[in-house]
Automatic annotation (TrEMBL):
Subcellular location: Endoplasmic reticulum membrane
Record-stated family: Belongs to the class-II pyridoxal-phosphate-dependent aminotransferase family.
The protein's name: serine C-palmitoyltransferase
Catalytic EC class: transferase
CDD domains cross-referenced by the UniProt entry: KBL_like (cd06454)
Lipid metabolism as UniProt keyword: yes
Length: 553
C-alpha cells in the first residue's frame, strides 16, 4: 500500500505537497470543461484545451554582440595559450600527437579539442559532479576540488548536503527509496535475483517481462509493446530493423543522438528538416514523393519521419496533429520518441498523443524510455501487434542483448500501476497533476522575472538562456553556493551562442523548494544580469489552485 505522507523529500515524492482533494475528479483546472473521448482503454483524449505554443524569444542584439565578443576574447586567450604550450611554457594535459607520428595527418588538433582545452576546461567543474544519494528532489553532492585548473579533480571526503536537485529527469518523483513504495521491487529481487544472464529469445523471457509489456500497451492505448534494457539502444538498434537501404528518414534537426545513430546504422538516406518546422518537413516530403530516389528516381521503399515528444534541450513539444496530417497526406510512417514526454505531459500522463487529443494508434512507432518519468532504466517500442512481433525477431537488441533485470521491470510496473491507478491509490494521478502545476508555476514565475526561457508552457524541461560563456560557470557555481544543483549546457549540445541552464521540474518538488530556487534565480538574475527578456509579463502569475482541479471522467 502506498503511503502518501510523512516521508522525507529525499525519499522522492514529498509530504509537503498541498493535500489533494479526495475526489480525483476535482483536479487541475488546465483541462477543465474539456470533453474526454475515451478509446476504451482508459486513455482519455482531451480536445480543444490549451496545448501551449513553443516560445523561442530572441536575445536582444547587445546580448548577441556581447556573446560573440566573449567567445572572441576566450578564443584569443586560447590561441595565446596554445602558443605557450607549443613552446613548452604551459603544460598540456590533453592527448597530443606522438612525436614519432608528427608527419601524419593530425589526430587531435581539431576545433573541438581546441574548445575543450581552452574554453570547456575553464568551466569543467560545473559538469560530472558526483552525487552520493538518490536523485530525488533533494540530494547530497560529493565535494571535490581541482589542483590543476580543472584537468583533474580530487574528492575532499566532505559532502554538500541537502542540495535542491533541479537537474535530474525525475519528472514524477519515482526515483525514490521509500521502503513501502519499493516493497514489490524488493520482493521481485528476492524471487528472481538481479541478473537474468540470457536474452529474451533464449532463457530470459520471464513472466514479469510479459506483464510489463501488456501494461505498457494498455497504458499507451495500443495493441502491443516490447521492452528493452536500455533506452539509447531502443532507438539505435530498432531503427535499423525498420528501415534500410532504399528508405528515406526525415529527421528533426534536434533529434537525440540515439535516433541519429539508429538512422545512420540503418543505411537509409537521411534528410534533416528544421526543428518542428512543418513547411520544411512538407517540402522534403513533397520532394521525396515527386522525385523518388536520387539518380534512379524509383520511389522510396519507405519514408519514416522521426521526431521526439518533448525536446530535451529546447523544452519544445512536437506539433503532432500537423505531423500526423502530413504523414497521412504523403503516406509516410511516423516514429515518435517519447523519452521526455511519457508520464510528463497529457492530463493523465500518457504523453503527447493524449496532450493533443490524438489517437495513439495513428502513430506507427511509439518509442519511450523508462529512465525519466518511471525512475528506472530501459525503453519500449509500442504500436501494432505485427510491428512488435516483427521487432521481437528482427531487432538486434531483442536477439543479442540480455533481458531487463527483474527488479527494474518491477519498478517500472509499479510506477505504471501507480499512474494508471490500478494499485488502488490516486498517488500516480496526484503526481501527474502536481508536475503540471509545478511546471506552470515555475515557468510563469521565471517569465514574470524577465528571463528568456524556451519551450512550451506544458514542458517540465525548462531551458533558461545564459548566452555569455562567462555566465555559464558563474551561474552554476553561484547556484551551488545557494545549495541548488543545476545543469548548464553549452556547445556542442547547443548552438555556440545559446548556452543555457536546463531545469527539470519534478512532481516531487515542493512549493517551498521551487520558491527557494526562484528567489535565488531572481537575485542572481539581477546580480549577474541574466534577465534579457523584452516581453512584459503580468505581475501576478496565473497559477492554478486546488479548487481548479478537474479530471474529467
Ligand atoms: C529523446 C531521447 N531518446 C532516447 C534517450 C536515451 O535514453 P536512455 O538515457 O534511457 O538510454 C534519451 C536520453 O536522454 C533521450 O533524451
Amino acid at each position: 500500500m502506498i503511503r502518501t505522507g510523512g516521508h522525507h523529500p529525499r525519499n522522492g515524492s514529498s509530504s509537503n505537497q498541498k493535500p489533494l482533494e479526495d475526489n480525483i475528479s476535482v483536479k487541475n483546472g488546465y483541462h477543465r470543461n474539456e470533453k474526454v473521448h475515451s478509446n476504451g482503454k482508459g486513455n482519455g483524449f482531451y480536445r480543444s484545451w490549451d496545448r501551449g505554443e513553443d516560445s523561442f524569444e530572441e536575445a536582444p542584439m547587445y546580448v548577441a554582440v556581447l556573446t560573440y565578443m566573449g567567445f572572441g576574447i576566450v578564443t584569443l586567450f586560447g590561441y595565446f595559450r596554445e602558443l605557450l604550450r607549443a613552446v613548452g611554457l604551459e603544460k598540456c594535459n590533453q592527448a597530443q600527437e606522438r612525436e614519432e607520428q608528427k608527419d601524419f595527418v593530425p589526430l587531435y588538433q581539431d576545433f573541438e579539442n581546441f574548445y575543450n582545452r581552452n574554453l570547456y576546461m575553464r568551466v569543467r567543474d560545473n559538469w560530472n559532479r558526483p552525487i552520493c544519494t538518490l536523485p530525488g528532489p533533494v540530494f547530497d553532492l560529493m565535494e571535490r576540488v581541482s589542483d590543476d585548473n580543472n584537468w583533474t579533480f580530487r574528492l575532499t571526503g566532505r559532502t554538500i548536503d541537502n542540495v535542491i536537485n533541479m537537474g535530474s529527469y525525475n519528472y514524477l518523483g519515482f526515483a525514490e527509496n521509500n521502503v513501502d513504495f519499493l516493497k514489490t521491487v524488493a520482493e521481485t529481487t528476492v524471487q528472481y535475483g538481479v541478473g537474468v544472464c540470457s536474452t529474451r529469445q533464449e532463457l530470459a523471457n520471464l513472466t514479469v517481462h510479459k506483464t510489463l509489456e501488456q501494461l505498457v500497451a494498455e497504458f499507451l492505448g495500443v495493441e502491443s509493446a516490447m521492452s528493452f534494457g536500455m533506452g539509447f539502444a531502443t532507438n539505435s538498434m530498432n531503427i535499423p530493423a525498420l528501415v534500410g537501404k532504399g528508405c528515406l528518414i526525415l529527421s528533426d534537426e534536434l533529434n537525440h543522438t540515439s535516433l541519429i545513430l539508429g538512422a545512420r546504422l540503418s543505411g537509409a538516406t537521411i534528410r534533416v528538416f528544421k526543428h518542428n518546422n512543418m513547411q520544411s518537413l512538407e517540402k522534403m516530403l513533397k520532394e521525396a514523393v515527386c522525385s523518388g530516389q536520387p539518380r534512379t528516381h524509383r520511389s522510396w521503399m519507405k519514408i519514416l519521419i522521426m521526431v521526439e515528444g518533448i525536446y530535451s534541450m529546447e523544452g519544445s513539444l512536437i506539433r503532432l496533429p500537423e505531423i500526423l496530417a502530413l504523414k497521412k497526406k504523403y503516406k509516410a510512417y511516423l516514429y515518435l520518441d517519447e523519452a521526455h514526454s511519457i508520464g510528463a505531459v497529457g492530463p493523465t500522463g500518457r504523453g503527447v498523443t493524449e496532450h493533443f487529443g490524438v489517437d495513439p494508434k495513428e502513430v506507427d512507432v511509439l518509442m519511450g524510455t523508462f529512465t525519466k518519468s518511471f525512475g528506472a532504466v530501459g525503453g519500449y517500442i509500442a504500436g501494432k501487434k505485427e510491428l512488435v512481433d516483427y521487432l521481437r525477431s528482427h531487432s538486434h537488441s531483442a536477439i543479442y542483448a540480455t533481458a531487463m533485470s527483474p527488479p527494474v521491470v518491477e519498478q517500472i510496473t509499479r510506477a505504471l500501476k501507480c499512474i494508471m491507478g490500478t494499485d488502488g491509490t490516486r498517488e500516480g494521478q496526484r503526481r501527474v497533476q502536481q508536475l503540471a502545476e509545478n511546471t506552470r508555476y515555475f515557468r510563469s514565475r521565471l517569465k514574470e522575472m524577465g528571463f528568456i526561457i524556451y519551450g512550451n508552457q506544458h514542458s517540465p524541461v525548462v531551458p533558461l538562456l545564459l548566452y555569455l560563456p562567462g555566465k555559464v560557470g558563474a551561474f552554476s557555481r553561484a547556484m551551488l553556493e545557494r545549495k541548488i544543483g543545476v545543469v548548464v549546457v553549452g556547445f556542442p549540445a547547443t548552438p555556440i551562442t545559446e548556452a543555457r541552464a536546463r531545469f527539470c521540474v519534478s512532481a516531487a518538488h515542493t512549493r517551498e523548494m521551487l520558491d527557494k530556487v526562484l528567489q535565488s534565480l531572481d537575485e542572481l538574475g539581477d546580480s549577474i544580469r541574466l534577465k534579457f527578456s523584452r516581453r512584459r509579463c503580468p505581475v501576478r502569475p496565473q497559477v492554478c489552485n486546488e479548487t481548479d482541479f478537474e479530471l474529467d471522467s
